[in-house]
């Protein structure tokens, strides 16, 4: 078994006014990787290149160790976008029948189990479903041909916290099999914070970091202090600083080291959202 489900090396794509700038990262097998970044940062472009829906201008993409243009890997991938693309007149039953003809590995009893678990009616047209029901259906369909890799582009966007929680639990259940992996783009950093093992931040077509989530959450911290105290902090001890109307704020890589070194300075915990905003809205590095 290849130790990476996805390996992206030096990937380059040029549009008129945007380029994905020679990005490299990996999705280790058995892990959930969250892909975060502001609108227009290049998340969907990256996902479409991985799925070979877009043609790359440079670099390499390997899925399960083979080139991503190889047809045979498709059966092992389940894909969910932020919209349900099934025709509104279809019922869940119609869709199951159709997909069983598309995927040789389609598992009808697994599909029915998921439908029951999420209380989706078998005989109602999809047009009568709420957004949450449609999204659940898309995810169930992506999982019922027993893929090893799930690729999700904003799959929990626009859903209420209860439906999101149910879906996140389903992803955690999926990943119990150590041959499975998930690559999951989202604006909702709290979802990524809940379930991801690794986090990749993309900004203006460049990868800013690829880190273990626990390092981000348990090690990173934020100093908030006045300008006088800020003058005592050595620039090597923080990653980025910014000035607000009333104080200085610094993002630090290891809050415990900083707490030991500067006893009279308060270092708060940082959420994934705090860290993302620091890198994107910046300050001075
Ligand atoms: N087919 C295309 N032709 C030209 N430009 C494109 C094309 N697809 C995407 N872009 C541009 O590439 C940039 C990145 O878009 P992309 O959809 O990858 O961002 P994103 O991070 O997924 O954003 P969002 O979070 O809003 O979905 C944008 O500036 C977009 O206008």
Automatic annotation (TrEMBL):
**Molecular-function annotations in GO:** ATP binding; ATP hydrolysis activity
Which CDD domains does the entry mention? ABC_DR_subfamily_A
InterPro entries named in the record: AAA+_ATPase, ABC_transporter-like_ATP-bd, ABC_transporter-like_CS, ABC_Transporter_VariousFunc, P-loop_NTPase
| Keywords noted in UniProt | ATP-binding, Nucleotide-binding, Transport
Q: Would I find Nucleotide-binding among this entry's keywords?
A: yes
Repeat in keyword set: no
What residues does the ABC transporter domain cover?
Answer: 6-229
Query: Matching Pfam families, A to Z?
Result: ABC_tran (PF00005)
Fetch the PANTHER family from UniProt: ABC TRANSPORTER ATP-BINDING COMPONENT, ABC TRANSPORTER ATP-BINDING PROTEIN ALBC-RELATED
Q: What is this protein called?
A: ABC-2 type transport system ATP-binding protein
Recorded source organism is Anaerosphaera aminiphila DSM 21120
């Amino acid at each position: 078994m290849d130790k990476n489900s996805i390996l992206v090396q030096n990937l380059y794509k040029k549009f008129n006014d945007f380029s994905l700038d020679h990005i490299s990262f990996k999705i280790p097998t058995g892990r959930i990787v969250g892909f975060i970044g502001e609108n227009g940062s290049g998340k969907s472009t990256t996902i479409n290149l991985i799925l070979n829906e877009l043609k790359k201008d440079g670099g390499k993409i390997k899925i399960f160790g083979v080139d991503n243009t190889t047809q045979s890997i498709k059966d092992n991938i389940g894909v969910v976008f932020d919209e349900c693309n099934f025709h509104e007149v279809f019922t869940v039953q119609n869709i199951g029948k159709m997909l069983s003809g598309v995927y040789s590995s389609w598992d009808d009893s697994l599909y029915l189990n998921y439908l029951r678990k999420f209380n989706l009616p078998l005989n109602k047209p999809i047009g009568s479903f709420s957004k949450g029901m449609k999204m659940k259906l898309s995810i169930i369909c992506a999982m019922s041909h027993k893929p090893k890799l799930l690729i999700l582009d904003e799959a929990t966007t626009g859903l209420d916290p209860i439906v999101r929680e149910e879906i996140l639990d389903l992803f955690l259940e999926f990943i119990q099999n150590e041959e499975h992996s998930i690559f999951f783009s989202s604006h909702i950093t709290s979802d990524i914070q809940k379930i991801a093992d690794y986090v990749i931040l993309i900004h203006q077509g460049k990868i800013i970091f690829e880190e273990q989530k626990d390092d981000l959450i348990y090690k990173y911290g934020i100093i908030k202090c006045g300008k006088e105290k800020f003058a005592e902090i050595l620039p090597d001890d923080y990653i980025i600083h910014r000035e607000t109307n009333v104080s200085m704020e610094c993002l630090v890589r290891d809050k415990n080291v900083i707490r030991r070194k500067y006893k009279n300075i308060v270092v708060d915990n940082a959420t994934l959202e705090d860290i993302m905003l620091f890198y994107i809205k910046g300050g001075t590095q």
